[in-house]
Amino acid sequence: MIDRILEYLSENQDVYLNAVLTHIGISVAVVTIGILIAVPLGVLCAKFLKLSQPVQGLFNILRLIPSLAILIVMMPVIGTGLAPAIFALTLLAFPAILINTSIGFTGISPSVIEAARGMGMSPRRILFTVEFPLAFPMIITGIRTAAVEVIASAALAAYIGAGGLGELIIIGLQVPSTAILLVGGVSVAILSIAADVILAITQKRLTRHLWLN
Amino acid sequence: MISVSKTALEFKNIRKRFSHTEADAVSDVSITVNEGDFITILGTSGSGKTTLLKMVNRIYESTSGDIYFYGENIKKLKVEDYRRKIGYVIQQIGLFPHMTVADNIATVPKILRWSKERINARVEELLELVGLPGESYRKRYPSQLSGGQQQRIGLARAMAADPQVMLMDEPFGAIDAITRQNLQDELIRIQKKLNKTILFVTHDIHEAFKLGNKVIIMDQGKVQQYDTPFNILFHPANEFVAQLVASENIINRLKILKAETAVQPLTRTPDDTDIYIGKDEFLDSVLSKFFESGMKTIIVTDADSKPVGEIAWDQFNQLLRSKDSGSPTGSQNRISEKVGIHAAIHS
């Protein structure tokens, strides 16, 4: 089996590399968009608690809908290819980032904020030098969850022609070839684990004060 | 020589009603705080003491009335700039857990864009002042400090940009008794050294009388009495204050009154055989000096160890025995008048 996997890889180097890069590209794009939208929304939810329930409820419902279903439902609306894939996967990335950001902010001790205000720090300064650093461990936990989910689900994007490692899985099923199937599946798994480890290291480095005692 | 002290803070008819509440949290407070005063605000929870304090740095905005900071209406000042001129210390301390001790203290200097050298020098100076040498504490995180040490850093952080006025909201309330005493003593020392104007909220009567050169007693949102510890003990303004201090027996009174409150003019020139005591020492120390030495008078000295007066045993004795008219001049206090009136009505 290993011989056949290696044989496939050496004969289809370009296809494989292309698939990996596309997969990473889609995932990075999705998580980045997710962070840019869900983090500010999470902050808003934490600041205006009335907003929190409807917004979080909405995204939780969206998360319950299978990604494949979203991909297929969206096909008539925004067609096939990269854009709808990124759109559907972004919906998947939202809830974890949004909820964790919100929890990270509401979990900050009010006395820390009061002390900051009392010293004459502006709301903007408090947000960037106090609140974000303190909420960071929770935010990055959300990003880790989202990244792993997105990388795994990005395999489905191949069904609407977005490319990526999902294509190898589809080919493996069609041929059928266990070797190709394994190359696709294991690669997705390795990417997921790698993303989680990299983010975990980042998290630990940036939150040194939590690991002192 | 009479020195005219500047007015640091002036409250004019300050009132605060929180939304969805039936009564004023603070109602119609008008008081003046002079520069260099150490004012303690004493009251139970719900008395309005913390609300009053937090209106000074506009954590709460007053519903009506005005507060003047060195003559300027604080509502007309840019709130952040104004707050940087006021030190703020709270019971929960509120250090930034993700910053080192040095970075915590440097918060306001950084906002004010001081140079790195100036900030570093200031951090060292403050750590020295609060008794935590920079060498071993500068790079620690708050979680690596005890509660007492954290509050010392809280104090250092509040003083970083050398504010003239300090607001302290039960700063030692969550700290064990022994550490609290040390912190109280150090705060007295720091206040003497730097001549800060301090407003200090507490629910502990001993803390209030020990620290404050004047005490504000609050109940139900109103100032019941604003006076020196001596006058509050011996001339309570009303029934509420009278009951509050009634529980203070002689021993407790000795612990919260300073030697200067009992001092009389010198009747002779002191010499080497005399016993001396600082004017800021408490009367329990005076009492033990009387017993230890067997002297009839103790000489009271000022901060420079210069004799400024004396306490004679007979007067001292009389002062403590007289509960109703304990002032050195022997004047009648208002509570006995009130009791008299009550007696008249009920008879």
TrEMBL record, chain A:
It comes from the Bacteria. The lineage of its organism: Bacteria, Bacillati, Bacillota, Bacilli, Bacillales. This is ABC transporter permease. Belongs to the binding-protein-dependent transport system permease family. Keywords: Membrane, Transmembrane, Transmembrane helix, Transport. One of its GO terms (cellular component) is plasma membrane. It is found in: Cell membrane; Membrane. It is a multi-pass membrane protein.
